[in-house]
Amino acid sequence: MHAHDELARRFEAERGRLRAVAYRMLGSPGEADDAVQEAWLRLSRAGGDGIDNLAAWLTTVVSRICLDMLRTRASRREDPYGDELPEPSTGELPEDEAVLADSVGLALLVVLDALGPAERVAFVLHDLFAVPFDRIAAVLDRSLPAAKKLASRARHKVRGTPVVPGAELDRHREVVAAFLAAARGGDLGALLDVLAPDVVRHAEPAALPPGVPAELRGARAVAEGTVLLRARTRFAALALVDGDVGIVVAPGGRLLLALRVTVEGGRVAAYEVIADRGRLRGVEVAVLEAGG
Question: For the chain, which residues make up each domain, given as ranges?
């Protein structure tokens, strides 16, 4: 019993890190907890004898469990979160999930969810947790060059390809960040300052409360319409959307809305709110890196 208690103590010392790894791979706190618990069951059956580096052993086991879960998810072509997303106007995410998502970054979770299982595992292990490629290759049952290629391909998708020069991208970031801050605060005056006088907003019906028109024109109408959507901004983050600065609304990292924003003359000239799932699948989202 003493040996088992010691093994449990050592496992608990690793639990937080293992959960962080699993959450970034799976994007679901519940599934991450399941993966970590399964790792404990495997460790308790195996015992600690012969394991020279328990942290590395557990990382490998958790990663393989997550990889299997991701492959099962992909083969069934299931939405891992079900068909219904949280209702932004009323509900909150469970606090634990909201904290986890904020700590990782909503945009990164959205991008990770679009990666293939092996790409996601390779990227998370190497770029987020600095696991050496020889161990990643073993987890994926791939050659060392193949593991490196998977991580590189994932990294390219995560970073995306801006379609505007760096200096222009930075200017767009400042404008869109100001727009999002004003929307979060429900600050009508700040919205009027950042919107062009002849701004146009087009939103798909699924993004709007009943009775709200899909298209609005003019700064006053668009600002007032943006305030109506304020509840959704808790789950919003800047991202690279189809190569330019935009916004994703992603409760817990689950892409609900994508905003394509057009910036002209230092103001928002137009924005489009995409809510249709079919169209969302065609939107290229990437992480907007600091400094362009």
Answer: 2-159, 166-286
